């Protein structure tokens, strides 16, 4: 057990300073949880897409899980490598894509309603984008 704890401690000691890398890891953990949930059931996803819950199928839930898991992995890598512009930019793009998806579902396709389950990913995407944009010069050291 001590070996596992030491290994995890070693890994986290390479994380850049500040709260932003930890935020990226936190949102990644939430994304991975959401992915696992979507692989198991589509019930929570139907709450998110409350505008058209009948459009949520087991297949669409699994596709959403795969997409969410992949952007979570990008965010984890970005969290540890914020000093590199390309990783920082990839982290930003994951939130741009998410925000575009949710805004499209709310305003264009009608899949989402402005409710609690929708507000959570919306707030995370907006907060993350603003924070990443404002802090870029503090983290990026290499082009």
TrEMBL record:
Any one annotated GO CC term: endoplasmic reticulum membrane
GO biological process: sterol biosynthetic process
Swiss-Prot/TrEMBL keywords: Endoplasmic reticulum, Lipid biosynthesis, Lipid metabolism, Membrane, Steroid biosynthesis, Steroid metabolism, Sterol biosynthesis, Sterol metabolism, Transmembrane, Transmembrane helix
Domain of life the protein comes from: Eukaryota
Pfam family, one: Erg28
Transmembrane segments: 20-40, 61-80, 92-111, 118-135
Entry similarity comment: Belongs to the ERG28 family.
Name used for this protein in its record: Erg28-like protein
Species annotation: Hesseltinella vesiculosa
């Amino acid at each position: 057990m001590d070996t596992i704890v030491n290994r995890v401690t070693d890994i986290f000691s390479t994380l850049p300073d500040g709260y932003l890398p930890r935020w990226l890891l936190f949102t990644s953990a939430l994304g991975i949880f959401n992915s696992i949930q979507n692989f198991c059931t589509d019930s929570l996803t139907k709450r998110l897409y409350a505008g058209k819950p009948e459009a949520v199928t087991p297949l669409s839930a699994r596709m959403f899980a795969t997409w969410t898991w992949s952007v979570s992995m990008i965010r984890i890598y970005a969290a540890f490598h914020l000093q590199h512009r390309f990783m920082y930019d990839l982290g930003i793009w994951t939130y741009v894509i998410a925000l575009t998806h949710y805004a499209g579902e709310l305003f264009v396709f009608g899949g989402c309603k402005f409710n609690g389950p929708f507000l959570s990913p919306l707030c995370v995407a907006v907060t993350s984008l603003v924070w990443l944009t404002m802090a870029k010069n503090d983290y990026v050291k290499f082009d």
